[in-house]
Amino acid sequence: MRGLIPSRSLRALAGVSSKPPLNPVCRAACIRHVHQSSVRIAPLTSSQSRRRPVLRPAQQQPATSITRATRSIYIQTQPTPNASALKFLPNHPVLPEGFPSTFLEYNSPRSTVAAPHPSPLAARLLDVDGVSSVFYGPDFITVTKAEDVNWAHIKPEIFALITEAITSGEALVNTVEKSTSAEDGQGGLGEDSLAPNDEDDEVVAMIKELLETRIRPAIQEDGGDIEYRGFENGMVNLKLRGACRTCDSSTVTLKNGIESMLMHYIEEVKGVNQVLDEEEEIAMQEFARFEEKLRQQKGPDAAPSTVGKGTLDFVE
């Protein structure tokens, strides 16, 4: 009949052969042979001719932006004798090249924007709740916090601010024209106080040399610096900066360390005086009143709370 397909054709479409079935072992071998001969997979090689994706010109970014995005720094921290001060070492110059002094200190937010050396980074650091002062050394930054603030709460933010400032390439210290008097709270202005001067006599020159070569490196290692303020009647006037400025053991450092060394090598030196700024003298007086009140409450057998002049365990 029309429309009917012969049974042989039906068997062919259905995949049924008119020949007798093959042995199962032979059938499996034939299937593997057909599969291997009809499908060939190219082996994977490490040929250099393989095409790789390439950015089109419109998609490419400037090399400077790519370099900036991948740049990274490693900041180390170092404890100081002052529990409220921490030294950050960014492995990057902090003070500008040719800066006249060996340090720069900011003790108030207003000082970070004042002439002659405003600092955007110091402004952001002092904006962190609990940070009281920022000290720049040649290659380190010392941050001092309030005594009631925990380092664990502010240390990550300080890390982030320093890293961002350095990786962005911004100047950590700027120099602008000084139109008025120096802003209170900005220390380290002018030339280095320990630099040689033709007007210095022999004794002063020896004092400066000893301070520069033997004493300053040790104080910088502790996150601070030292200023020479004069020599009168056998007394050397000095001022500690950075972590040493607010350290409880600053007086011990001056008396047992600096004074002993100067008197040992220079017979004209009779002692050392610590020079304090007006606000530091007020803070010292307030602290002395607090210690006296604490002494009265605890009695004469009170355990010492801090060290240094005006404290419970200081002996003249």
TrEMBL record:
GO MF terms, alphabetically ordered = iron ion binding; iron-sulfur cluster binding
Concerning SUPFAM superfamilies, the annotation shows: Fe-S cluster assembly (FSCA) domain-like, Hypothetical protein SAV1430
Listed under GO biological process in this entry are:
iron-sulfur cluster assembly
The cross-references to Gene3D superfamilies, in alphabetical order and at most eight, read: Fe-S cluster assembly (FSCA), Scaffold protein Nfu/NifU, N-terminal domain
Q: Which residues form the Scaffold protein Nfu/NifU N-terminal domain?
A: 75-169
List, alphabetically, the InterPro entries matched.
Answer: FSCA_dom_sf, Nfu/NifU_N, Nfu/NifU_N_sf, NFU1-like, NIF_FeS_clus_asmbl_NifU_C
Give an example GO cellular component term for this record: mitochondrion
Superkingdom of the source species: Eukaryota
Query: Where are the residues of the annotated region Disordered?
Result: 46-66, 177-198, 296-316
Which Pfam families does this one have? Answer: Nfu_N, NifU
The similarity annotation says: Belongs to the NifU family.
Q: What is this protein called?
A: Scaffold protein Nfu/NifU N-terminal domain-containing protein
